[in-house]
Amino acid sequence: MKKRFFQPIWKFEEIEKQLTALEESGWRLNKIKGLRCFEFVKSKPKTVQYFLTYSITREKLNMNIIENSLVQNFGANQIKGTLLEGLSGTSVFRITKQEELTEQSDNRDIIIQHYLFKKVVFGIILFFLLFAPLAIGAVINIEKFLEELNIFYMVLLSFCLLSIICYVVYNLVGLVYQNKKLKNK
Q1: Domain boundaries, given as residue ranges, for the chain
Q2: What sign results for the dihedral spanned by CA atoms 111, 113, 116, 117?
Q3: What is the DSSP string of 24-76?
Q4: What DSSP designation does 126 have?
Q5: Per-residue pLDDT reduced to its tens digit, 83-96
């Protein structure tokens, strides 16, 4: 059986709960194919814990500390995926006994919060870098500015601006979610 989970990185706990529930109902995670496409095999129902990490660029070092802690302190096994899954940054660990992973979960949430903050700031800077020259040009000489714009350029520019806005909003939603989650802990 194959199953795909479409959860953003700030909702890893939901994927972990779903993976645990599938294992308890007799579907063991065998491997990961593609971007969060999980392949399961029929097995004996078992109570296990799953823990997901997200290893991205500079945060990779901090996530490695969490991953090493899972393996060394809790005997976690990493479920291997394909190269594509490795590029997506998501790693899945199976722990065969029930453990308290509050510290690892809190550390992961803080790393993801920092990552989302950087993405929001990057998107805002990109928006202003793209929009500022247009705004300045329009203010200085609006008639010449409008004459030189053609339809293709306007459509391309609108698409870029809309994409950047969606990128910022999506990551901002994640950042707000992470902030609330960390405040409630």
Answers
A1: 2-99, 107-183
A2: negative
A3: HTTEEEEEEETTTEEEEEE------EEEEEE--GGGHHHHHHHHHHHHHHH--
A4: H
A5: 555 556 778 899 98
